[in-house]
Amino acid sequence: MIVGNQNTLNKLExxxxxxxxxxxxxxxxxxxxxxNASDMxxxxxxxxxxxxxxxxxxxNTFGFSPTHIAWLxxxxxxxxxxxxxxxxxxxxxxxxxxxxxxxxCGSAGMETRAYIPELSTCVINSPGEPGISYHMGIGFSSNKxxxxxxxxxxxxxxxxxxxxxxxxxxxxxxxxxxxxxxxxDVVPLTPAGNVTERHMVAVILEKSLHETNNPxxxxxxxxxxxxxxxxxxxxDTSAFKNLLRKKLMKRGSVGYKQPTKDTFPLIDEVNRVxxxxxxxxxxxxxxxxxxxxxxxxxxxxxMVDKGAVTLNIIPDRNWNINDPEIKHIKLNNLYKIIKYxxxxxxxxxxxxxxxxxxxxxxxxxxxxxxxxxTESFIYGAYFIYGHTQMxxxxxxxxxxxxTHAQFNQRKNKNDFYVQAxxxxxxxxxxxxxxxxxxxxxxxxxxxxxxxxxxxxxNEYI
Length: 461
Prior knowledge:
- This protein is of the alpha/beta class.
- It has three domains: 1-41, no CATH class; 43-144 and 277-389, Alpha-Beta Barrel (TIM Barrel); 156-248, no CATH class.
- The protein has 20 helices and seven strands.
- Helix 8 (215-223) packs across helix 9 (227-233).
- The longest helix is centred in the middle third of the chain and has 28 residues, at 147-174.
- The chain is globular, with a radius of gyration of 23 Å.
């Protein structure tokens, strides 16, 4: 891959994950200089996508920054990359800038949990928590928002911070005599203080290894398990972290507190914030096994009525399963939801998360199980990229007044942004072309102009 010193590549990639933004930007510029000087040979772009990558602004299992996610796409030849962080938009501008530098078709999103009153007795995609739904906004073009929207985003973030702090305090009490402090030990693990349960687990495990004489005995007592079983389980660090999260923080554990209707914001409130950012409310699909997801028609109709226009899936956890019986059930559910989403004109956004050990860098679109779905995946990738560029450069994204005036049917609107996504180069010089489109144009005039830009890009740079 690299003609020169491999150590140079390793050092620059390490700098991509510095908590200092200037360091990250400089490292990416140096990496791209190597590429442009032909000192590094990278694979050609493949029409594949990972549009759901968490970054270190929430939790990334590799510690990757938004800039590193863009570089990863360049390095691996992935045409479409997207970030999705829990509860914050901190990485949006950085990531989209890095995508322009690397020539990656990028998009950015936010994931949170919300309360759906109409489904208050029904488990949806948050196991054991009726009425609570993981929910997303995608297609953000900037983390700079108007003051009222900024206040609402801060309220979401602050609620999460308080909830996680309280959870940590309950767990901390159970794990005495470990010396645990939320502000001192956990908050510094992420550059903007947006703590997740996975950060807490990492700190707790590290403390147990260094502050107890016998970690096996300590965890045997705290988890009520035989210490010999603990010894075996600790050989797989990733699996043991998942066990700690389950035993200390999830439903039925010492730290868990059953949510109420006031624990999370209403989904209508979350959708308003997303739309105020000119982004797109997005249904988050788990695996189709819950009561809520079994009632596909009712769920999609309700969510669309509340503003959802896309649907997110993590394909790998729905087919790449060792147990053949479970695989059969979840794979059938995967095919079913994609059929329903296509019929409802909900573009599909796919990715792998990257927030837990063992998750793949990108889905295997050539796997026999996924090949029949690839066309839908690529359509969704072009759609969200097209919207992102149209909103970023010309303020003519999916939620714009121009779009509402021009389109009556969702399918026509979707097809327009897919076509735009196929035409707009990811490294387009926005300051040069931003005056070439304007709101008095019709969709066909916009597409004609985009064809000129993409067909003879040298005229515009």
